[in-house]
Amino acid sequence: MKYYLRAGLVHSGERVGSNQTAYDDSHVQRVRLVRALIETGGLSIAATKQVLSTLDSDETSLAHTFEAAQHALGVGGASSGSAEPGALRRISELATAHGWKTTVENPGFDVAARALDAFSTIGFAPSDEFLDAYASAATTIARADLRALTTRDRPELVAELMVVGTVLGDALIAGLRRLAQENETAELFPVHTTIHDEKDAK
Amino acid sequence: MKYYLRAGLVHSGERVGSNQTAYDDSHVQRVRLVRALIETGGLSIAATKQVLSTLDSDETSLAHTFEAAQHALGVGGASSGSAEPGALRRISELATAHGWKTTVENPGFDVAARALDAFSTIGFAPSDEFLDAYASAATTIARADLRALTTRDRPELVAELMVVGTVLGDALIAGLRRLAQENETAELFPVHTTIHDEKDAK
DNA sequence: CACTATCGATAGTGTTACTATCAGCAGGTG
DNA sequence: CACCTGCTGATAGTAACACTATCGATAGTG
């Protein structure tokens, strides 16, 4: 907690005397936000600081906050360098095919292209149908994200939800994908290890 | 490289003399796989080792490999402990509503429930529509995943693709989601910061 | 006027992912 | 056949990250 204060993730409270500092609800809320980003979103302290700085800025335009938040998040996960041009182009074409209006600075390009690169290096070339399905899913999710944002009850917290939603939504879809995968697997390959109790205990 | 050997991520090559070791294509492939998991997937060494051990096991059933891979991956991102029972129940209901046949051991439950928890702690209660959209998207993705798996040209590499696909697919959907978000934002809030060049340089 | 409690600041700790260094030895070179 | 190169496995060291513990100063409490 004092660590977060020091790191600049939480604004310092109001001094009450030279050794007392007052904290209010905004501090509690902020710490919760920080912990959500770090623990569930898996962000580093540095990335969290970046993200929060956009929240704290007076620029409240939705588009601008989105852009800043994505930049702060984008580079976080991967290492250094950029994705291959070929992969980037393929993602670009995919975006165009889905009618997405995007800017080249969007770190999503790099994140997606890196993933594509990684698929290639291990010898799997994703088909167009595969990528299309992913892109359709992304559209569905993004629409839900924006709907959640615009129907927010407390307008002053929209920026906060946007930032957190970007991070936590990744975790949410990852979890749900795991569940859906299990279901699809079960549907394609009806259980054949159910009756035999090969492993009785572990 | 020697580090990965030491860590047990790569099988040691055939000794040729007491100071020479021969490596072949399988080693190259393995290293590529390891780097894809670590760099793009963001896995830790320990998690990667877990994942690879399932690949190396002789159990080749699709369902079993999926389960093992998901377990190895599931706990990786988040910290310790479990999600709140309420959030877990909500995810459970969501899965039921979407007709998913799943097992409670699926770490996806915990991952999704944690994300839900995090949304709650920052004061945002996801609506049913929001979760439904995410679940639908998850279904779309999972179907594409399984299709890619079953139409694989080299059957002996299905397990590998499954494991890597679980990890890299997360990154792919995260990137595409960012792109789709930007597009949705642009559609909802047509540009109004284009003409004014408020910030000429930085 | 001792005691306690909190403050900001600094130093230390444990983990993770590498990187550098080291001795040992087979094979080629002069 | 001494010598050097280059590779081996093994160990020690490093750098970043996220905390955690401790410290002296100080201010309110009994």
Concise summary:
The structure is a homodimer of 202-residue chains. Chain A is an all-alpha fold and 202 residues long. The first copy, chain A, has 8 helices and 2 strands, in the order αββααααααα.
Description:
The structure is a homodimer of 202-residue chains. Chain A is built from eight helices and two strands. With 202 residues, chain A is mainly α. Chain A has one domain. A two-stranded antiparallel ribbon of chain A has the order 1-2. The two termini of chain A are 40 Å apart. In chain A, 47% of the residues are buried. At the A-B interface, helix 2, helix 4, helix 5, helix 6 and helix 7 of A face helix 2, helix 4, helix 5, helix 6 and helix 7 of B. Chain A binds a DNA duplex (30 and 30 nucleotides) through helix 1.
